[in-house]
Structures are given as C-alpha cells and as structure tokens.
Design goal:
mainly alpha
C-alpha cells in the first residue's frame, strides 16, 4: 500500500512539472508576440511624429493667441509665425511692427508677403512716405517693376527718398531715378530747384545724365544737396567735380576760399593730388570731418604741415589717425606673412 502511494505521488509530480513547463513556454511566446507588436506600433508612431506633431502644435500656439497678441509677442510673427497666421495681420499693424523691428533679420519671402499686404494688389503709386519709412532697407528685396511705379508726384514721397539715407543698392537707386524721370521728364538737370530737391536720388542717375548739368546750375544748388553725394560712384563724383571746377562755376582749387570749400563739400575728395598743396591756408579751415573720413588715404601725404595746422581740431584729429594707419594696414605686408 505504501509503495502504491509513493508511485502515485511520483506520477503526479511529473505531471505538474510538465504542465508548468508548457505554461511557461506559452507565456514566453505570447510575451514575445506582444513585444513585437508593441515595437511596431512605437516605430510607426516615431516615424509619424516629425511629420505631424511640430506643425500642429506650432499652429495651435499661434491660434491660441489669435487677435490677442501683445506688441512684444506679435513682433515674433515677423520671424517665426506660420504664413497663414501672418497673412491675417493688416497693413497698419505691420507698419507699427516694422518701426520697432530689426529689418535685417526678416527673410526675403516674408518681405514679399509684407509688400503684398501693404500694396493690397495695387502698385507702389498708392503708397505714401510712412510705408516707405517703415520698410526701409527691405526695399532692396521689392520687385524692381513695383519700385518703378513709386509716386514721386507726391511731395512727401520725394522728400523721404531725397532726405533719408536708406541702405539701398545702387541699382535700386537707379530704378528710383527712372521713376523720378517718369514724372519730371529728362530736363531735370536744367532746373536748380529740382536739383536741390533730389538729394540722395541724384546718385541714381547715370554719369551721362549728370554730365548734362550746367556749371552755373551746379554751383547754385545748396550745400545740403552736395552733402548727400555719398551714394555716388567714383565715376559719378569725378563727373560732378569736373563740372563744379569749371571756370563758370567755382574755378580751379588754387582760387578757392573757405566758401568754395564749403560749397564743394564731399566733392573735395576728387581733388587731384597736384592741386592739394596750392589750396590757400584760409580755405583749409573749411574742410569738414566728414570729408576727411572718406578722402583717399594716399592723398593725405600731399597736405603740407602748414595746411594741417590750419585744419579744425576734429578734422586734424581724423587726419592724424588716418595718416598713422596709412602704413599699418598695407595689403602687401599682410600677403608676405602668408
């Protein structure tokens, strides 16, 4: 009887071990299948996230602030906002934003959107000075055919481009000069008052047009107008210098006094080196610091010691500093180092 009990206990133990082993293997297979399924789902989710989540959450961020943006927050729309949200801004809001924004950081594509919103499907002839003031250097990216229709018949528009030193390319100034010619024709160079009103726009005309200015007319325009020739090329300033040194205008440099030096203004930088020493000492006092900053550096050595002593304190300080730098930054010496 005892042997029978031992035998039955042994058989039941084997059965339990077998059953437990089968259940473990089944659980393992099911766990592996579940893990593979979970991995596939996670992998698919990770693939889909970059395509949908950033854009959705990005738009929601601006949708929540729609029509409730403060000035500090709304300025970010110029750089980071979604295009469809940006297009909801009206022209007046953009004008206000652009006055307090670093325009150099605005992209070209966003600039074109700003231009489309401001013009509202019309030409640039409908824009006033306040719009051009807000755009500023962004006008470099405006289509040339649009700038050609700028309304220079409006005195405010003309005064803005004539009196504001905008960082525009020379080609853009040429387009603006063509737009000016549309309103005033090709005889502007005979009229002294129109030359006075051109300001920075004068450098937009080609040298062939500037050569048509009469010496008496150029000598009669205001000093302020001649101080706005910084946009002109070397060829343009040489043409204007040859006109203003005509005998019917200011004459040769050796005959100049202080009034003539003030009159010639920025064109003094085109004085030939052989004429510098012949300028009277009394006239040297009238050379402005702005002129001494942009004159060719090699011409500084042609001023005599007496002429340097006659310069104003600010002009002489700039002269000395530039003369000291004349030999310090020699390109030939820098090339020899390498």
């Amino acid at each position: 009887m005892a042997l029978l009990l031992v035998f039955l206990t042994f058989i039941s133990g084997i059965f339990l071990v077998y059953t437990f082993d089968v259940s473990i293997k089944g659980d393992k297979s099911e766990a592996l299948e579940d893990l593979a399924t979970f991995y596939e789902e996670e992998k698919n989710a990770m693939i889909a996230l970059p395509q949908t989540e950033p854009t959705d959450s990005y738009d929601v961020l601006y949708e929540d602030n729609d029509f409730n943006l403060k000035l500090e927050e709304s300025m970010n729309v110029l750089y980071f906002g979604p295009t469809h949200f940006f297009l909801r801004l009206d022209a007046e809001t953009l004008l206000h934003l652009l006055q307090y924004t670093r325009k150099s950081r605005i992209t070209v594509s966003r600039t074109l959107l700003i231009w489309d919103i401001m013009t509202d499907g019309k030409t640039a002839a409908f824009l006033q000075a306040r719009e051009f003031l807000a755009l500023g250097e962004l006008l470099n990216f405006v289509p040339e055919e649009d700038l050609y229709h700028v309304n220079f018949g409006s005195q405010t528009v003309l005064n803005f481009f004539a009196n504001h030193d905008i960082h525009l390319s020379k080609r853009k100034y040429g387009i603006l000069a063509s737009a000016y010619r549309r309103y005033y024709g090709s005889t502007w160079y005979f009229n002294k008052s129109r030359l006075n009103n051109l300001g920075y726009l004068l450098c937009g005309f080609p040298s062939s047009d500037l050569a048509k200015i009469q010496p008496k007319v150029l000598a009669a325009i205001n000093i302020e107008a001649l101080m706005k020739l910084s946009k002109c090329t070397r060829k343009q300033t040489r043409v204007l210098y040859s006109i203003i040194t005509h005998q019917e205008a200011l004459g040769s440099p050796y005959s100049w006094g202080a009034e003539e030096i003030k009159k010639i203004s920025l064109l003094f930088i085109r004085v030939p080196v052989h004429d510098i020493s012949s300028i009277h000492l009394e006239a040297i006092k009238a050379i402005k610091p702005e002129v001494m900053k942009i004159i060719e550096q090699y011409k500084l050595t042609y001023f005599s010691k007496q002429q340097v002593l006659k310069m104003s304190s600010r002009t002489r300080r700039i002269y000395v500093l530039r003369l000291q730098l004349l030999n310090s930054y020699d390109i030939q010496n820098i090339e020899d180092w390498y």
